[in-house]
Amino acid sequence: MRIAASSALCDAAELATMVLHRSLSAHDLVNELAVGISATEAASLIREALDVARDRALASPDGYPFDISQRTIEAKPITSFNPYLFLLLGTSLTYGRASTVDKLQRAFRKYFEDLVCWSLRTAGFTAEVVSEPRRERGLPKSLRPALREISLRFCENGDLIVRNLTADDNDLGVDVIATHPFLPTRRSGRPVFLLQCSTGSVTALATKITENQNVFPGVWQKGFYSSSSIRCGATPSDLLRMGPIYWDRLCKHGWVLDRMRLVQLACFRPGGVPIPRGMLSLWGKLLPVAPKLDWRNGWRDFLTAYP
Questions:
Q1: Which residue of 32, 125, 207, 220 has the lowest C-beta tally within 10 Å?
Q2: What pLDDT sits at residue 26?
Q3: In the chain, where are the structural domains located?
């Protein structure tokens, strides 16, 4: 289970048109990226990559920040925070020099959770980041009062079972929790989405979704029921081209929010929910580092790892 090579090449093409500040044709991309493979094979892969770009544009016409045609790709002007570019640049930090990007990678792992939460809120969900640090995210630092505050904000009539908490509990296996507020709040039993966020390999996503999946519901009585909880996984990677069999197997573990689903959520009601300050600060640091990302080597490394 892995990201399709055409998706990785599409990422490289998107970074290339951003860094070079011009429209790139299929011929341009073959010249830029055909290293270690034949020009014929490179041309075929470029066609597939441009097909992926068209799929992304169709998935979220308002959120995809590139103009794509049959033969060219070009970056649109960046006028404000863009969730797609935030995810693209965050996942592409591995292509940069360690001294340049280590700190940014740590920040991206942290603020990816905030982007997931913000995207859900933008789409109308009630959502909170459960994991630490909680204080800067508007919740008490300690877990117990944070859980009680979440219960109040969710209008969930659950009682916290303190004896089921341990001294080393951090987030009870939940990075982000969400529900939909239009559902009645006078009684418990609403669907609750328990999300685990993963910025690493897609192969680890299924494990992230299933690990500790009943821990959070297990600390509540009369609320947050396990049977009405929906386990979810969020990844900044684009899984549009994941093979149908692998996608089906992954979705058996829960609701999967990949890059394009997150962008779709974020574009549902743009401007309606404030962007977290930490995310905006990181966004301001990601844009200047884009020219330092070696997108050519990123593509070559992918070909080596996934022949």
A1: 207
A2: 87
A3: 5-81+290-305, 98-284
